[in-house]
Structure formats: C-alpha cells, structure tokens
Specification:
May be part of a spliceosome complex. One of its GO terms (cellular component) is catalytic step 2 spliceosome. It holds the Pfam family SYF2. The chain is mostly helical. It has eight helices and two strands. A two-stranded antiparallel ribbon has the order 1-2.
C-alpha cells in the first residue's frame, strides 16, 4: 500500500500514497490563481482595444457625416446668386425693423423718433454725406448706363410685402430659394393686387416715355447725316456731348483738308 524511498546506505522507508497526491494538488492550487489573473488581464486588454476601436469607428462615421453635410451646403451656396448673402441680410434687417415698428406702435411711440434717439451724431453726419454722394445724375453717357439707372430707379420704388414673404417661406420652405435643379413652373400664382400694381407701373412708364418722345419740328435746311429717326437722335446726343471735341475734324472733312 505504500512506496519505499531509500537513501544511500539506508533501508527503504515506506511513504504513504496520500502524501504525494496532497503535494501535487497544492502545486496546482498555487498555479491556478496566476493563470486566472493572466487570463483576466488578457480579457481586460482585449475589451480595452475593442472599446478604442469602436470609438475610432464612431469618430470616423461622424467625420464622414459632417463632411457630406458640408459638401451639400457648399454646393447650395455655389448655386445661389453672388449677392444672395447681402439680400438675405437685408431682408432679415427689414423684418427686424417691421417688428420694432409694431412694438413702438403698441407702446404708442413714434418709431422714427425712437430710431433717431439711438443714432449718434457721427453716424448721422456720415449717412448724410453718403446720401448726397449716392446715385448722382451725371447725364447721358451711353444707353447701357441709362438703362441701368432706370432699373435702379424702378427697383427703389418696389416696397416688398414682408408678411406675404413670411407666408410663402412657411409654405414652400427651401423651395422658395430655387436652384438650377428646382422645378417651380406653375407652382406660384401672383396675387391680383400684385398684377394691378405692375400694370399701373407700366402704364406710368408708357405715359412718361410718350412725353419724352414727342416729335421735334423738322428742319429742312439741316444736314442729313442719319439713316433713320433713331440714328438721328443718337447723332444729336453725340453732337451735344462730343461736338466741341470733333468740330475741327468735321470741318476738315467737309473742306477735304483732313490729314
């Protein structure tokens, strides 16, 4: 039932089998906690790597999403007119002015008086100087400049209906600011008041143009240097502004002494 362990020069000594099993089990118990700790540390490191990987993946996803949004916004900005930001800022400022006018009316105050109380003397002088320099009448230079001046004069007379603008903005949303890809044909019908206002303005322009285009008396003795009435009017305007500079050249051409 036992094993004999013999030393040098001695008789074998019986050893119990339970003692060997007890020593091997104690060694396994000492080795098992260190292996469990190593496995737990490895698992912890793995979880940490997975957590960092998920964070990097989410950051990459957010970066791609923000980049796509910026690309879409930039495309919209490029398709807008070049002066769109200025127009938008102007409309927002006009809306604020309208709101302030309503507040002053509710309090029984004069808006112009309240506005003047908020303006400093330096700003008032600067605006007055700017108003005097704005759009001076330099006379006729060419037809393009005259057409531009007429366009600016007509657009200054237009008073936008900001309440109607807000209603349209709520109704159409982003479609109110069309781009090259927008299809808005037939989606907007002008109001009867707007059509009547346009007709009245056109009739006023026609009436004013008829006064300017009254027929001048014809002079039989005048030199004929035109091919039709439109060309004759152009020559008269050119003579009025540049005649003093070209008088000598014209006389030399008539005498045949031009160099």
């Amino acid at each position: 039932h036992g094993a004999a362990v013999a030393g040098p020069g001695s008789l074998p000594v019986p050893v119990a089998e339970g003692a060997l099993f007890q020593s091997s089990s104690s060694e396994e118990e000492e080795a098992s906690p260190s292996a469990a700790a190593a496995a737990a540390a490895a698992e912890q490191r793995r979880e940490e790597r997975l957590r960092r990987f998920r964070e990097l993946h989410m950051k990459r996803y957010e970066a791609c999403k923000l980049n796509s949004q910026e690309v879409v916004e930039e495309d919209k900005r490029l398709k807008l007119p070049p002066n769109w930001e200025a127009k938008k800022a102007r409309l927002e400022w006009e809306l604020k002015v309208q709101e302030k006018k309503k507040e002053c009316a509710a309090r029984g105050e004069d808006y112009e008086r309240v506005k003047l109380l908020e303006i400093s003397a330096e700003d008032a002088e600067r605006w007055e100087r700017k108003k005097k320099k704005k759009n001076p009448d330099l006379g006729f230079s060419d037809y393009a400049a005259a057409q531009l001046r007429q366009y600016q004069r007509l657009t200054r007379q237009i008073k936008p209906d900001l309440e109607q603008y807000e209603k349209l903005k709520e109704q159409y949303g982003e479609a109110l600011y069309p781009t090259s890809d927008s299809l808005l044909h037939g989606s907007h019908v002008p109001s009867k008041e707007g059509v009547d206002r346009m007709v009245a303005d056109l009739e006023k322009q026609i009436e004013k143009r008829e006064k300017y285009s009254r027929r001048r008396p014809y002079n039989d003795d005048a030199d004929i240097d035109y091919i039709n009435e439109r060309n004759a009017k152009f020559n008269q305007k050119a003579e009025r502004f540049y005649g003093k500079y070209t008088a000598e050249i014209k006389q030399n051409l008539e005498r045949g002494t031009a160099v």
